[in-house]
Amino acid sequence: MSEGTLLEIRGLEVVFDGFRAINGVDLTVGEGELRFLIGPNGAGKTTLIDVITGLTRPAAGTVRFGGTELTGRKEHRIVRLGIGRTFQTSVVFEELTVLENLDLAVSFRRPLVSLFRQRRGVSDTVASVLDTIGLGELADRPAGVLSHGQRQWLEIGMLIAQQPRLLLLDEPVAGMSQDERERTGELLTEIAKDHTVVVVEHDMEFLRRYASQVTVLHEGTVLVEGDVATVQKDPRVQEVYLGR
Ligand code: ADP
């Protein structure tokens, strides 16, 4: 694994009942990168994230994270190694406040004994996360009252509160208003200053504005990889992804 590489996937294959959903993927993500993963429906994007996070076992290939082989490890061990992900379905606790959701996320990282200690206000970590996700004014409101966009930001906040080295975000702007998309783009840019982030997204307008490095998946293989302008101009991408 070369210096500066955080995630290195080689020769990955995933087979579901004889169907090859991932068919020989190589992917390298450097420390500190903000990488976008795009591709038409069924390209294998979510499956790839599922493999990295230990939810799906590959039929072949290796996934190395900071030099540690991940394949065969259990999900919770992979979380402990510093990989956090969001899901397309929400995982916030609706009856708990924004603050309590963040506190809970932080507590996943703390040694068990500290959970029993007396609480002394908002921790520095939570305060800084609240600031980053822009939900400071809603800190004491139940998460159930948040808009769709705010809830997504809270989920991202819950991830960064756990201080992962790698964040995997699955379609973070799906279903968001234009204004929420812009705020999410700014949030990702901010987070990427001190995290490595892989974002699954297929909103082209969003990519044009916020992506630099893009990997295009198609039928379980990497079709093209490069900067967003080059990738968009590639005739293979236009054909399979934009349908032109
Ligand atoms: P994407 O996220 O790019 O839309 P997915 O990774 O969800 O694509 O799916 C890739 C392919 O694998 C699709 O054809 C999908 O139907 C198939 N697939 C995904 N998960 C399963 C599963 N658990 N069992 C069978 N087929 C699956």
From TrEMBL:
UniProt cross-references to Gene3D superfamilies, sorted A to Z: P-loop containing nucleotide triphosphate hydrolases
Its gene is urtD
Q: Name one GO molecular function term.
A: ATP hydrolysis activity
NCBIfam families, A to Z? urea_trans_UrtD
What is the recorded name of this protein? Urea ABC transporter ATP-binding protein UrtD
User: What are the protein's UniProt keywords?
Assistant: ATP-binding, Nucleotide-binding, Transport
Q: Does the keyword Transcription apply?
A: no
| Top-level taxon | Bacteria
